[in-house]
Structure formats: C-alpha cells, structure tokens
Design brief:
Length: 368
Amino acid sequence: MTPLSLGSDLFAVPVPPLVPAGSTLPAAVQHRIDTKTKPLGALGQLEDLARQTCLVQQTLTPTLQRPHLVVFAADHGIAAEGVSPYPAEVTGQMVRNFAAGGAAINVFCRQHGLTLQVINAGVASDLTDVPGVRDARVGAGTRSFLHQAAMSEAECQQALNAGAAIINELHAAGCNVVGFGEMGIGNTSSAAVLLHVLTGQPLAHCVGRGTGLDDAGLQRKLAVLAQAVAAHPEVSASNPLQMLATFGGFEIAQLCGAMYRAAALRMLVLVDGFIVSAALLVAARLEPTVLDYCVFCTQSAEAGHRHLLAALGARPLLQLGLRLGEGTGCALAYPLVQSAVAFLNEMASFESAGVSTATAEASAAEAR
Ligand SMILES: O=C(O)c1ccc[n+]([C@@H]2O[C@H](COP(=O)([O-])O)[C@@H](O)[C@H]2O)c1
Ligand SMILES: Cc1cc2nc[nH]c2cc1C
C-alpha cells in the first residue's frame, strides 16, 4: 500500500493552538479561578476543566451550546475470526435499539440533555428502513485484517471526511461541545492493534476481553491479532493513516476525522472509552494539538485503555468500570463539564462576597 497522505480536505483546516503567542488569557483565566471563594485549587479537576474550556473558547465566560453525542456504528471483518463473544449482527440490531430510544446511551442523553445523533458509518445489515439514523456508509463493513487491509486508502479517506462533514454541520448549527461514541462488534480488536502498532506497547497489554470473552477466548483473540499484525509487514510505524486503513474500522476512521475537525473548529471534544480513544490516538499522531480540545471522560475496564490513556497523557474524569461504549462515559461525565462552567460563571469572588483572602501564614502571624 502506498503511504496515505495528509492531502485530503480534512487536513486543510488546521487545529489552532490553544494559547496564541502573546496571549494574556491563561493568566487571566487562572486569576478568575483563583479569586473564587474557595481555597486555592480546592475544586481539583473541575478547575482544570474550567481552564481548558476557557482556552478552547478563548473567553473568561465560556458557555455550553447545543451539546450533542454522536455515535458512529460499523461492522468489522475481523469479527468473523472469533474475537468477540457476540455475533456481528448485534451491531445493526443495536443501531435499531438506538433509533428506538432503548439503549443506555439514549437513557443517559435524555437524562442530561444531550442530543443524540446515530451514524451508520458502515453497518453490514440494511438499515435504510430505520428512521433517525444518518446514512454515511463508506462500505458494508470492513474486510478481515487477518487476511487483507480492513479498508482501502480511498475508503479510509472517505470515512475521515464523512466524519468531518458531520461535525461541520453540528458546528454550523451552533453546537460547541460534542461527545463521541461507537458501536461495532469486533472493534476492540481494531483498537487494540492500533494501540500496539502506534505505541509499541506489547500486544498482550493492548488486548482485552471486549464484550466479555472468557480466558480461553482472550487467548484466542490474542493469537488471532498477533497473526494479523504479522500479516501486514508493509505497514510503516511512521504512517498513522496507513495503520488506520489496515487495522481500523469505518466508525473508527469517521471518529478520527470527526474529532480532528471538532478541534479545528474549537469545539470541546468529549472522549469516551477504549475505541474512541484509539481513534483519537490516530488523530493525535497526525496533529498533537487535537488533544488540547479533549476531555477524557472515563477510564474503561478494557485492559488496554490504561495504556492508551497513558500514551495520550490523559487523566479521565470517571472510573466506574464502564466497558459499554456508545458514548456512555461522555454522557455520564457531561454534568461535570456543566459544573466546571457553572462555578466559573456563577461563584462569587473573594472581593464580591467580602470574604477574607488571609493566607495561612498571615493567620498564623495574627494568632501569635
Ligand atoms: O468503550 C469501551 O471501552 C468498550 C470496551 C469494551 C467493549 N465495548 C463495546 O463492545 C463492542 C466491541 O467489543 P468486542 O468484544 O465485540 O470487540 C463495541 O460495540 C463497543 O462499543 C466498548
Ligand atoms: C448488547 C451490546 C450492546 C452494546 N453497546 C455497545 N457495544 C455493545 C455490544 C453489545 C453486545
């Protein structure tokens, strides 16, 4: 395969650095946080989140507008190799469940006021009769990367651009915060191999139980994926897009394009579990500034996620043992993002509330 290039439409829009040279915003943001009526740093990770939101939006008074959760679904050829306890048909069946409002992500989006958008990025079964599912198919599932590249170069580019196009529309409609989820039987295999080839982390650290493999199933998955990696000596460690085309999935490529574009448009990007993080890893290898726009919502119970988060330098908000996907971690963490923005905009300052800012040293001196 010839190396994939960055010459597509997608990468014509650069991701802006969060802090432009000469900007005084970071100091002003820190001052605004530090003058709220609380001990310095006492709101912990919420303070980091508030700071990040200000820098993403380039303002001291950020707002969350038209929050969306986008779930990309696709089928995977590798699922035919016995790497998941569930049959591939579950992908399409779950998309029908999303459309009917009955999945976990529907419940949590309703609970927290997020608009859910479901994208058919490449499901094998026919979903054209299902209302409310956007048809952005690039193909009817990928090929098995045990035998050949999952996608062609052209398919991969098409998927990246399809993901970006969805974000262009959300942005045009006034959305400035978007969470990302996925559905695809077999996709923890793609994510594990991408983590392995992009970071050099031993494959055994990257491969996990997915939807619930037992010990024997896990050993089989590891053996299949080791064979698959060995079957692609042409893949170059310095070409993330080639890795994505070879081992990825249509939903993973659309996620990669969508997250890249959301960052380029200065949207706040909410990152879900293992598979969404693997898509982000590809985007971050192409453009590391993407990460400045990302809120890591959850640490998945999938074994490799710990290593993936470490490779991204990420500290997730929640650790609940989730291993569902669908964007559930994003929906559950969204109230924390709201709280970060709310404390920044609504809390009194020491000055406005007439609260003393006396330091510990001053108090000690007074007491003497
Ligand atoms: O998001 C995660 O961390 C996560 C961890 C394990 C499984 N999943 C979900 O389970 C499916 C993939 O699992 P598997 O075993 O078929 O590879 C896919 O639909 C994902 O949404 C998701
Ligand atoms: C039932 C089911 C629901 C899911 N949601 C995301 N991945 C999933 C995998 C399965 C098997």
